[in-house]
Amino acid sequence: MKKSVLSFVIDQWSVVPPVETANLSGQTVLVVGANVGIGLEASKHFARMRPARLIIACRNEAKGKVALAEIEQETGYNGCELWIVDLANFASVAAFADKFEKEGGDLHILVMNAGIVQPDYQLTIDGWESVLQVNHLATSLLSLLLIPQLIAAGKKSSTPSRIVIMSSELHYWITPAKEVQASSKPLEMLSSQEWCIPKHMQSQYGESKLLNVLFVRALTDRLQSVTPLSAVAVNPGYCYSQLRRVWYETTTFSVSKIALAIQERLLAWTAEQGSRQLIFAAVGGRDNEENMKGGYVSLGRIVEVADFVLSDEGHKMQDIVWKETIDILSGVSDKIGQIVRDYLVVPDSPIN
């Protein structure tokens, strides 16, 4: 599928479908990146569905406590818990997963909403370019580490568990450079200082959102059809969000800030409207679960992904990125290899 600027504008001017609802009694929901914006609004919607536990995972404890109070005040739900995790630190992610293994119990819905935009090249404490680590590597790490709890919940329930990973329609306009596609270690290349010149940093966020789609599809390829777990990528649409605050903070030319403000005024949805897409990806489409597996949600329905993702080149890169991701994350946590062996299968692919 190709997406034009006109189709993007039409989508943004479309009526946003109402929020999906479900009975979440007895279930545990985890929202990562929940203290502001879309994640916070999604958490409020989950709270209104009264799950047994709603865990909001945030990097900043003070902001998380404010979000916790806001959720309880607006929904009357008092089963929300605040846990701390920093996706820019692999050790924090691994510690979070260890804590969940001990204290979290079964997990029915995992929403990986956290993400960053960073116009300048910055390394995390782990030595990876920050956007690549937060949006792809750490997101994939926590998703994989929580697979045992997700599958356990799905086996005990009549409803498969869900992993929801925030992507973006920006992936439609990203075609990785030929040298990235040809590399046996594209993530290493995308993270290198040599690659991350200002021109390439402009598309780094979009690249990370493409990687999210590839990860969801690669994971789905490796889950047996009988496994009670579905992975879904979601496009929240173009929304008012603190994601773009870095541009307001760092842009020196007032005309650029004015242009961004006008663009948001003309096109942006509210964070609550964007959150409805996350909710649909988490609880919607239960009448056709097979259609949801590996799917890409936009405007409250499954839509086709970008042509590159569906191409032979896209399939090849998907498998290469999966292999590199697993190799990297296996060096972070010795649990990754065991989870891959115990819960996933090897698809019919020459890469594996």
From TrEMBL:
InterPro entries: NAD(P)-bd_dom_sf (IPR036291), SDR_fam (IPR002347). Pfam families: adh_short. The keyword Oxidoreductase applies. GO terms for molecular function: oxidoreductase activity. This is NAD(P)-binding protein. Keywords: Oxidoreductase.
